[in-house]
Amino acid sequence: MRVKICGITQPKQSVAIANLGATALGFICVPSSPRYVTIEQIQGAVGQLPKNVDRIGVFANSSIAEISQTVKDSGLTGVQLHGDESPDFCSLLGENLGNIEIIKALRVRSFEDLNLAANYTKYIDTLLLDAYHPQQLGGTGHTLDWEMLQNFEPSCPWLLAGGLTPDNVVAAVNQVKPDGIDLSSGVEVKPGDKDLDKVALLFKKLRG
Ligand SMILES: O=C(O)c1ccccc1N[C@@H]1O[C@H](COP(=O)(O)O)[C@@H](O)[C@H]1O
Description:
Elements: E1 2-6, H1 11-20, E2 24-28, H2 39-46, E3 54-59, H3 64-74, E4 78-81, H4 87-97, E5 101-108, H5 111-115, H6 117-120, E6 126-131, E7 158-160, H7 169-176, E8 180-183, E9 188-190, E10 193-194, H8 196-207
The ligand O=C(O)c1ccccc1N[C@@H]1O[C@H](COP(=O)(O)O)[C@@H](O)[C@H]1O binds near residues 26, 35, 139, 184 and 185.
EC number: 5.3.1.24
Family: Belongs to the TrpF family.
Keywords: Amino-acid biosynthesis, Aromatic amino acid biosynthesis, Isomerase, Tryptophan biosynthesis
C-alpha cells in the first residue's frame, strides 16, 4: 500500500521516514501553513532520498506558473492540489507539467462533495480525500466520515487522509480499503516536526 507522510520540514527526518517505509513524502507549499517550506528547504530534504520515494509538493489555489516553477526548481515528482482547483485547472496543469503526478484533494463533508470526484478523475493521476474544516485547508487532524466511503470506487487510485494516526490506521484501511494513505499531524510532535517513534509504530501496525 502507498503510504505518504506529509508536512516534512527537516532533511534528516525525510531520510529517516523513507527508511522506515514511506513511499511518498509531502512538502507543504502553502504559505499560511505552520508546515510551510521554501524551495531551498525542499531541495535540502529531497537531496538524500532514495529515487523510488515520491516527492509531492502540496499547493492550495496557487497559479500554474507558481506550481510549475516550484516543481522545476525543487525536483518534485508530484503535486497535490488541496484548494478549490477546478477540473479544468487540473487538466491545464497536467498539460504544463507533463510527466508529474497530479493528486487532487477533495475535502469531504457530504455525498455532494464526494460526487465531485467523478469530474476530476480523467484529468488527474490520483485522488485524495481529506476531512473538511471550515477554517483550515489541511493538516487538521480531523477524520472524515468513513461510513460514507463504503462504496467509493473512483476510476483512478485514491488516498485516504484526515486524522489518521498509528491508533486508527488499521481500522481505517480495513473499513475503507483505499489504495493508499496520507498522514501528517497524527505522526507529529508539533507542526512540521515528525515523531519518528510514531512513524515507526505506524509501519509496525500496518505490517502487522
Ligand atoms: O498540513 C498542512 O499544514 C496542510 C496545509 C494546507 C493544505 C494541506 C495540508 N496538509 C494535508 O492535510 C491532509 C491531512 O492532514 P492530517 O493527517 O489530518 O493532519 C494531508 O493530506 C496533508 O497533505
